[in-house]
Amino acid sequence: xxxxxxxxxxxxxxxxxxxxxxxxxxxxxxxxxxxxxxxxxxxxxxxxxxxxxxxxxxxxxxxxxxxxxxxxxxxxxxxxxxxxxxxxxxxxxxxxxxxxxxxxxxxxxxxxxxxxxxxxxxxxxxxxxxxxxxxxxxxxxxxxxxxxxxxxxxxxxxxxxxxxxxxxxxxxxxxxxxxxxxxxxxxxxxxxxxxxxxxxxxxxxxxxxxxxxxxxxxxxxxxxxxxxxxxxxxxxxxxxxxxxxxxxxxxxxxxxxxxxxxxxxxxxxxxxxxxxxxxxxxxxxxxxxxxxxxxxxxxxxxxxxxxxxxxxxxxxxxxxxxxxxxxxxxxxxxxxxxxxxxxxxxxxxxxxxxxxxxxxxxxxxxxxxxxxxxxxxxxxxxxxxxxxxxxxxxxxxxxxxxxxxxxxxxxxxxxxxxxxxxxxxxxxxxxxxxxxxxxxxxxxxxxxxxxxxxxxxxxxxxxxxxxxxxxxxxxxxxxxxxxxxxxxxxxxxxxxxxxxxxxxxxxxxxxxxxxxxxxxxxxxxxxxxxxxxxxxxxxxxxxxxxxxxxxx
Length: 552
Known about the structure:
Low-confidence stretches: 1-57
Oligomer: single chain
Number of strands: 22
Strand content: 15-25%
């Protein structure tokens, strides 16, 4: 198997950027398509510090000249194809007589005038990343010129009628692009698909995935890379498969990512102490299918035995996905009837004989019949209780009520014979239900209906003390269940994604509001994307304040 390693630098986004839909006539001045953001590309920093400038040159009389402090006034590096890019480069520090500013490197057709005015009329096929290098020097001084590097990002403008070239259009506004070219219409079974990432094309496959989400106008996908592997920038390992989560049901684009990264942060002390956790990795990507923009997605590990192996577990154990609320660790199903099959609610996705659920049946037989004290005493031989304690607090703080039994994974670890928890699917979290209705931040849910083990954690005195102590540790200031940690992460997501959230929302706003899966459940409480981000932030603050009312 050959692995393709793609560890390329991704540009940094400004803290706040708002972008309107592209203006067919291009931009006047900076860009009509991008506003409110400092140009933070390459070595430019904050729109203006010189890169590698160690001082000015020598004056004509041999005295040391004041440094230029090369800077520019570009409002934002996030632009559109067809925009006329304009800004002024200048010396920003002290007297600067004698300096000449020049364009050392840039796209064809770009030019800078004697007064530092830069202009470039981009074309319909100029989407992607463009590096500029500006120089300031005193002619004849012999001094090393000051330089300023600046990155421009031009997004594909579909109104110009020129689809992006997959091999060349590798990033959009600093986020990796995944190009899919299926051999036929994508469906819920594998379709041979060319997948191009950072200029390399895989002969792979793709399919629509999910339960309710499979019917979304913007569905999620699973992609496979054939006999090769891909590593996206920032990822700790190569992957044969990835899941592309659409976030069609979350116009804030932060819920799923926040919960997955929260779980990873909650697991850090366990891993640092030599333990193991199932911690799927996530990062944003932009998806194009047959040259058409499909929007901002969240690339996520696919839960499979390859992931188990990458995370340091012994491979080959049974991996089980909880697909209904019958996956509750009780002897009765979600309706209260006795289970005719103790593995009800689960699907086996890998490991051993696909029809052999005997190890899972044995686990449910134990948890369903044992007393609370019995789970406290004998449970550690069956499950990792620390996994389950953190699982409870993860779904409690996020109010992920659809993921406290259902929408999870269990892995039967061959190393010690115990079952381990893996998180999955968090569109129902942080202020909304799974079909986008609003949820009350003051709600306490003991999840005892969903999960027999969660009942024991709260009912057995010894387990309860351990359970509460863990929560106190995880919600301390700066820890993953504290509001300040969550708000800091959301700020970072918004800064990284810059104009992407607005572009995706402009593409999908109409379908989101008219979608039959939830339009009936919303009573005029629609939000714009920026309003939804504000709502999530406010909900998190209110949620933390509500802890004082919980029966702890």
